[in-house]
Amino acid sequence: MKKFKTKKKFGQHLLISEGVIKKIVDEIKINKEDIIVEIGVGTGQLTEELLKRNPKKVYGIEIDETAYPIIEERFKNFENFILIKKNFFDVNLYELAENNKIKLVGNLPYNVASLILINTVFYIDILKMSVFMIQKEVAERLLAKPKTKNYSFLTVFIQTFFDIEYIMSVPARFFSPPPKVTSAVVKLLPKKDIPDIDKKKFKNFVSSLFANKRKMLRSKIDKDILKKVGIEETARVDQLNVEDFLKLYK
């Protein structure tokens, strides 16, 4: 098998620690009915562990053409594995779900991890859960509280729809090549009561409030509306909690 070279443009860092791989897959709690979608197969370390647990199907999404022969060779004897040779953003997860719910997993490329996280919101009605390896800094943003420096658009948008669990930190030495940052594994579970709102409009609304976040809210939202929902007109966006954003949006 020819040696695989990671590529910077795809943000590739291959996870090589068996212990971490097992821990990630343990968190997915695979049963034989599960449809698993893995984002970024790479050379298939995580994929192999997923297949060992014998789910109904594993779809592996991979953008890097040089990885295809390696993946195809490695998993040629697994009938429940299907390689999708595309960019994640060009894949329609509804088609893979076949009217079932899916579990998403992946060691996400750092350069697009936030965009992938945002994208999962639009598939929430077919998601059982997601377990992702991301930059620790992004994980901290996902879990941030109001009035802290990590509290951002990403925090609010993801926390509106998901309960987030921090599973573990992963040092750079567990990857090849080692990234310059520490990574983290997080688990996202759709909330029991998902707000029934237009997700795209809500995303744009939250994003627009976080633009110029030092400005007081009265410069962005009508004072009467702020008064109606009981928010001080001198408050700033990072003082609002998720409920406040929903009230204001509605």
In brief, what are we looking at here?
Its main location: cytoplasm. 33% of the residues lie in helices and 20% in strands.
Explain what the structure shows:
The protein has about 250 residues and is of the alpha/beta class. It has two domains: about 10-190, Rossmann fold (3-Layer(aba) Sandwich); about 200-250, rRNA adenine dimethylase, C-terminal domain (Helicase, Ruva Protein, domain 3), CATH 1.10.8. The chain contains ten helices and nine strands. It has helices spanning about 20-30, 45-50, 70-75, 95, 115-120, 135-140, 155-160, 200-210, 225-230, 240-250; strands at about 15, 35-40, 55-60, 80-85, 100-105, 125-135, 160-170, 175, 185-190. The strands form two sheets. Strands 4-3-2-5-6-9-7 form a seven-stranded mixed sheet, sandwiched between helices. A two-stranded antiparallel sheet has the order 1-8. α1 (about 20-30) crosses α2, α5 (about 115-120) packs parallel to α7 (about 155-160) and α7 crosses α10. The protein is elongated.
The unreliable regions are none
Strand content: 15-25%
Question: What name goes with the CATH superfamily of the largest domain?
Answer: Vaccinia Virus protein VP39
Radius of gyration: 20 Å
Report the CATH architecture of the largest domain.
3-Layer(aba) Sandwich
Instruction: Look at the helices and sheets and give the structural class.
Output: alpha/beta
Instruction: Supply the number of helical segments.
Output: 10
